[in-house]
Amino acid sequence: RKEVEQDPGPFNVPEGATVAFNCTYSNSASQSFFWYRQDCRKEPKLLMSVYSSGNEDGRFTAQLNRASQYISLLIRDSKLSDSATYLCVVILNTDKLIFGTGTRLQVFP
Amino acid sequence: DGGITQSPKYLFRKEGQNVTLSCEQNLNHDAMYWYRQDPGQGLRLIYYSQIVNDFQKGDIAEGYSVSREKKESFPLTVTSAQKNPTAFYLCASSTNRGSYNEQFFGPGTRLTVL
What span, in angstroms and rounded, lies between the C-alpha atoms of B62 and B21? Predict the structure, then answer.
């Protein structure tokens, strides 16, 4: 079983739609969780951290379920500019990040 | 402007040749990292360094070597021992204060071995 698993997609959604991605992790000792965004042929950039209580940043909401060992990312009112690959990142300790393979989102007009 | 630079953006080499990828940062970060990204796979850690003159192997260090003689620089050499070197290579840096700090990535180098 992979340490971090994501549905690769692609998720094709119309502008204005709400879309949700899940990411599961295998190590219950995982400490910290993040979502990164990666545009085509570019470097990843931090989108948001994921806290146990859940957190929201504008149209984006991230949630953590430790019991079921998954994190989620919800995007409301999708924009064309949201088209990208979303990487789930899990940290076991301060030295090591584990990246998921990414979920590709394509928002169409 | 502060940031991480990688050069070149695209690199082509013949099989059997060693090649060195450059990574420079002016963010005054202590820690630097090298990742490899292949289609359909997540980023995999090759080497990392938390302080000058020290570095550790990541998950896929075989066939690679690094040096950290200066805080700003962390070059990666892809040797002829690396069996499948064609990939997208990403360098990252972060502060190093005992808890997780965001890793900032460079723009990457696409290496193609012919």
Answer: 16
